[in-house]
Design goal:
The protein is an alpha+beta fold. It is about 25% helix and about 25% strand.
Length: about 210
Amino acid sequence: MLTGCTAFTSRRSHSRGGGKGATTLQRIARSGPSVRHRLPLRALSRMVTGMNIPYLTALSPDQQRDLGLAAPQPLAMADRVRYSELDVLNHVNNGSYMEWFERLRVRYGQVWGLSPDADASKGPRTVIRSGQIHYRQEMHADETYVATCGCTAFRNTSYTLHQEIWAAGTLRATFDCVMVLLNPDGPGRMPIPQAVRERFGAVDGAAPEG
């Protein structure tokens, strides 16, 4: 509903523009407000609607570029705005963005080996210590969007995630948060497993801190 910044740590977006092979949506996304404002969002959305999009499935780097992302992210999935996610002004309500971010964060934890399996005693409890969301541009019913997630830095028992929402080649919202691992069966923090630390570096391009 509203654009702006809501505090829960702040981090700059890590997206970059594409190269010569950029799609139409990518070129529009890089063109700046003067060009984007001459193209109605509904027209941009129709470009996406006509594409063969694998919803609720991890997108390849090429699929992410085709959907207008400025740079591929470690994990990205597409979905469509539902009527139940709108407010009285027919804009996506602010709470829905948080649900989208959370949904992909959970999937990220499962794929990266940070979420417990059927036996919860084997995996850590993961909690958000702090976070900040930036609402950049409103969204409407039936728009196709892409949610992304990736680690930007990590310590012994915590790591920082950067998330984005893209639609029609435009960055609509970002969320940055610090996640902490807790022991599954009691108080105290749990160290990040070595395999996960290696994946943070190899897949996400994240660097250790501290």
